[in-house]
Every structure is written in C-alpha cells, then in structure tokens.
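INPUT
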Amino acid sequence: MSEGKRMDGRDFHDIRPIEMKVGVLKNANGSALVSLGKTRALAAVYGPRELHPKHLQNNERAVLNCIYTMAPFSTSDRVRPGPNRRSTEISKVTRECLEPALFLEDFPRTVIDVYIVIIQANAGTRTAGINAASLALADAGIQMRDLVTSVAAGKLNGHYALDLMGKEEEETDCDLPIAYMPRLKKLTLMQMDGNMPPADVKGVINLAIKGCEKLYDLQRKALLERWSKEVLE
Amino acid sequence: MNVQKQYIFSLVSNKKRMDNRSLDEFRKVVVENNPIEQAEGSATVTMGDTKVLVGVKLAVGTPFPDTPNEGVLMVGAELSPMAHPDFETGPPGEIAIELARIVDRGIRESHAIDTEKLCIKKGEKVWMVFVDIQPLNHAGNLIDASGLAAIAALINTRMPKLDEDGKIIYEEKTSESLPLKDVPIPITLAKINGHLVVDPDVEEEDAMSCRITISTNSEGNVCAIQKGGSSDLSMEEFEKAMELSLRKGKELRKHLKHHSIKE
Amino acid sequence: MNEDMENDENFEKKDKTVVLPGDSIIESMEYLPGRNCFREGNSIISKRLGLAHFKGHVIEVVPLSGMYVPEVGDMVIGEVAEVQHAGWVIDINSPYQAFLPLSGVAEFIDPAKTDMAKIYRKGDVIYGKILLVSPAKSIHISMQAPKTRKFTGGRILSISPVKVPRLIGKQGSMINLIKDKTGCMISVGQNGLIWLQGENEELAANAINEIEKKSHVEGLTDHIEKMLSRK
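OUTPUT
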C-alpha cells in the first residue's frame, strides 16, 4: 500500500464501487440488492402483516423483526448455515438502527419482517445489509421518517479511511460501522473495534457520516429510478 | 382458494393452464453463470418467477472411513423467508431437507462427480464439495430450478489453488474444472385432476394431489425418483412421467455446456 | 402576492411527482398535511414512497405500493382462513385479518345446532363488506350488505391494491367497459383481489393485467377499448 492510495487503488475517502437496485424480488413487498465492492447484500421486506403468536403482539405499535444471515457460499471459508452469535448480534443492532426511522405506531399488533441475506462477503456486510434493508422498507411503502444509510470507517496508515474492504480490516487501527438518518442527522448504529484516542474516533465518525451522505444520494436515485418508471411508462 | 383450485382443475381437463402454457411446457428458463465470483462455482436459475441461487464451496477434509479415496459431496438447502410469505425462519424443515436430498440423490447416483479424482491423499485428505441451495423467490417448482442451478454451479466450479502446506488459497482459482462426468437433471410432474403437469407454478402446486420427481442423466438413464404428496399414482401415470422427465430433462440440459451432453 | 407566486411554483414542481419517505414536499404554513404526510416545523414531509398530490390546501401522498388498509364500507374479496365457533377468520390480504361474526351472516344461526363449516368452510372465497374498523384495528366483515356473496366457479386475479381505483375508473367507467366488451361477471375487491367468470374470461384477465401494468399512462381507457375490440 503506497502513501496516497489503498490496496485497490482507492483514495482514503472513497467508497468501493456501489450498485443499488430496488424491487429485485417478486414475492416480497419490498426488496433491494446493494453491492459495496465485492460485498453484496439482498434484503426483502414483508409487512406489515399479522403477527403470530398473539402474545408477541404489541398493542401500540408494529414489531420490527430483522434477521441477518450469510449464505454459506458467501465467504472464502464456507459459513455453516444457521444463526450464530455474530449473525444474532448483527440482527439485533440492525433492527435497532432501523426502528427509529419507522412509524411503527401506524400499525399496532403487526410485524414488519426484514430479511437480509449476504450473498457475497468482503467486509462491510452489515453496512451493505442496512442500506439494502432501508431501500426495501421504502420500496414496500412502509411509513418512514427518513431513510437509513450505513458505512464503516477506520484508520489506515495514519489516514482516516472510508469503507474498509476485507484485507484492510487486518491493517486498520479501528473498524467503526455507523448507521445514519441523513435528513434528521442522527446516528442509529455505532460499533467500534479498535484502540484510538477520542479525537481520532471523532474524525473517523465524521468521515463515516460524509460517506453516509453520499450513499443517501445513491439510495434516492435507486428508488426514484425504480418508481419513476412506473409512473412515466 | 377453492375457487382457484376448481378453476385450475377445469382448465387442466381441457389441457389448458392459467398462463396459456401446454401441460408439458416449461416457463421461461434462464441460467446465469457465476453470479458469485467469490464462490468456487455458482449459478442462478429463473423458471418464470421462481429464482434459485446455488453456490459451490470447496474445502479440504478427511474422507469417510468406508470410502478412503473418494471426495465428499454435501448438498444443503435453506428456504429463506425472503422467498415466500409463508416461509418461516428456523432450521431447515422437512421441505427444505427433502429438496436438498432430492437434488443430492440425482448428482450422487449418477456419479456425476468423479469422486476418486477428488482424492488428495488416500485415507487422509480429500476435497469436500459443498453445494448450497438458496431459493430467492418461490413461484413454484423449486426442485427443478434448484436441481438445474446445482448442476450448472458444479459445471462452473473451478478448483482453487493449494499452497505447499496443502491449505487452500481461495483467492486464486485454477482453470481446472471440478471433475464432472455427467449432467443429471430432475424433472417434477404435478398430478392435477388426473393429469400430469410439467413445471407447476405456486397455484398449481396448491391444486396438485401429488408430485413425482425423476432425475435423468445425459445417457438417458433414470438415476433418482421421489414421489411427494399423499395421493396415489398408477403405473401408467408413472410411465408417462418417466417419458416426460427424459424429454424435458434433455430440453433443460440445452441451457448448459458440458462434454457429456450429447447433441 | 409574492409568497403566493412562489408557492405556485413549488406547487407545479412537486404535485404529481414521486416522493420518498422523509422528503420535504413543500415549505409553507399555507398547506395542511393529509394522508401519509406530517408537518415538521415549516415543512410538510412525506411519510412514504408515493405520488405527491395537492388537493386544495391539503397535501397527501398517494401510495405507489403497499398493503391494503381496510376502510369501512369497502367491498373486499377474502378467503376463509379459519372456522371458529363465533364466526370465521377471513384473510383479506391486509396487515390485519378480518373477522366475519355470526351476526354478519344473512340467516339466523344457532351455533349449537349448526355446523359452521356448512355455511363457509376453509378455502371458500367471499365478497364481503367492511363493517367495522376499530381503533385497535379489529376488522369486521358483513355478508348482509347487497352484492355480498360466496363465489363458486370463475377465477381469482390479484393486482396491487393501489391500482384498484384505476381499474374501476371514474364512476365505474373502466370496469364497466371490460364487463360490456367481454360479457363477464366481474367483482372487484378494494384489497386488490378480483373475481371473474364468463365466456371471455381470458380477454378480461388480459385487460385487467394490462391496466395494472399501465395504470399511469394517459389515454388508458382508449387503449383498453381498442384491446378489447380487437378480440
């Protein structure tokens, strides 16, 4: 890795090549596919729909159910299918980062199911999943205060770096994924692995927020592309 | 829906279907090769609106004691709730397990994979081939779509490099294909109101009384059979099913390229 | 005067455009937030993906996708999901299942003496009227209103519920066009399910699918009329 560039030739403030496509699955009420470089996440939303068993229903609002899984063939070493501790934690923080953006009060006693499947993994899987989930929720017509965007940032060779890829995760001083509501300017997910002074933490987060703003533009573009076609046809 | 079932029954009696297909016609089939570049092999098959993604991963492991010089094949399927509103999260239920085992049977019994060529060191080290089936959208006939995607993914599989210690370098694929000598294809027939129907969609699956899946190989031999559903089948119906599965298997095989496929 | 002109500009810009959740449709205290909108400070903000629609001083967002939300008076097509002792649970393709109570059925029924399944059994498809939507979103259906019935024969089609108004047309103009040209009996549920039966079922089904696909196209009625006349 040379001074000014990263392993894949990117600048430190560049996100990997991004692709976003909305409405990719027929049965789901809403769906999206998001690629961050080689990482690819598919999200499907069903709901709001009736929640069974009844005792899990919340009389005041909809329940958000979020399940993150990795396809066994998504990683170099095959992942055994089924939930594990990592996927359980990611499912939880994903749910908690999407909830603040949703008008759950509008649909008491129901459930909104969000399913995220990582079909190819090269770091940043939870962030790709969150971007896809937010698109899928909007695609499904769910009432939302704002979209949710997500990206991870770190510090490589003294530089704050955006969207770490696989190999960079070993080199970075920290791995800090965030989720961000761009209109409301609020953070809904924050996690960090690393060892850094607070000033650096601030620097990394601010870079991640800039990255989220860029992703927001792309999310908007993807949604408008899918739905303007419907209207103009 | 009773109304819809009745409607399908009466259509089928007149040799018709809701989307105007004939009883022995497939929906539009598209095979996409290697959508997942990081996997050793992969394929997506769409049959109408049904969409199945299969990925193949290779690993090095110990052989089974009774087959010390043969590689190992494992086929799994997970019916993700993203594919259909009725699918639930949780470990694979009987439908997912049956699906995986039907696809497995066709590949295993036809000896499609030359497992002896997957031996690295007899009794100690062999290649393990993991085929993982991931339906993305269920609009009927997951079995045939999964079976076709599985064999397409195996055809696309390239062996990864091994380093001096015998560890896999996943980032470096060789140009060596997985040793494959046959292309088995499962074809499922749904019995609806006494008629056999090819490539049933979701509503036809609701209306069917039973189904029979027959896997055939490039030679034209039957290598696996699975009857599903609780109704019965006559010998005559079975013979018709066999003829259909041979014919339709040949048709689907045209979507793939392999030396074993005869023109 | 200037403020009004500025608003008119915005009006033209934003009316009938696709908006996303969180989008500010207009910054003005002159307008009220209607369906699927809310006010935040000076702005009227869209709650969901849809088409911004200016109705006088009210701004609403018309959904382009999404589930059917039951409203009292709606005619819906539903499938009997469960037979219970006090009525039937009906699946109406909505976030909430509906209930058809004994009192909602035409005949007098003594539950002690009647096999409920003989009236409606699991899998039956009915055309019912939404009688009640409680604040807790309990949905009750009646089979006593005119036009309600249990369907036998025919077939069911499904379209996105947001396209139903287009299928029906102004004062039924579109649906009546299809009925006349195909001679089919057609019942449309506000929840996106449609039942039809008749000689030219296929033609009617094709027309309905075409309307769903091209619902926002201008001159759709003429296009459908041509399609049905070609036969």
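end of record. Residues 1-6 of chain C have pLDDT under 50 and may be disordered.
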